[in-house]
Amino acid sequence: MAFSWDGRFALCRIEEVDPNSYRVYMHSDSKEDINDSINVIDRPPVKASMAAYDAIPVTPPAPWNVKIVGVDDPVRMGVFQLKKK
């Protein structure tokens, strides 16, 4: 069975600049696995197609700043649930 983002929770940038993909820095079946205690990311993101999925904001938690190793300024991130279009 192929992997699907449908229904998964993802840690993504609040302001995505990639016009084709959501950059997913962490993902899980459970919303509770992604929370504001995550404040440093030291691995590259994986991508989910914007053409195939909608990203629905999930709160709590409210968006927070995350340091991405190799990026000078912290990036505002939040939890989203990806849903197939």
Characterization of this structure:
- With 85 residues, the protein is mostly beta strands.
- 0% of the residues lie in helices and 47% in strands.
- It has one domain.
- The model has no long low-confidence stretch (mean pLDDT 95).
- The protein has no helices and seven strands.
- Strands 1, 2, 3, 4, 5, 6 and 7 form a seven-stranded mixed sheet that branches.
- The protein starts with 8 loop residues before the first strand and ends with a strand.
In terms of per-residue confidence, which ranges show pLDDT below 50 for 5 or more consecutive residues? none
Quaternary assembly: single chain
Q: How many β-strand stretches?
A: 7
Order of helices and strands: EEEEEEE
Number of helical segments with 4 or more residues: 0
Provide the structure class. Answer: mainly beta
Number of domains: 1
Shape: globular
Please outline the major beta sheet: 7 strands, mixed
Radius of gyration: 12 Å
The share of residues in helices is: under 10%
What's the N-to-C terminus distance?
Answer: 19 Å
Roughly what fraction of the amino acids lie in strands? over 45%
Mean pLDDT reading:
95
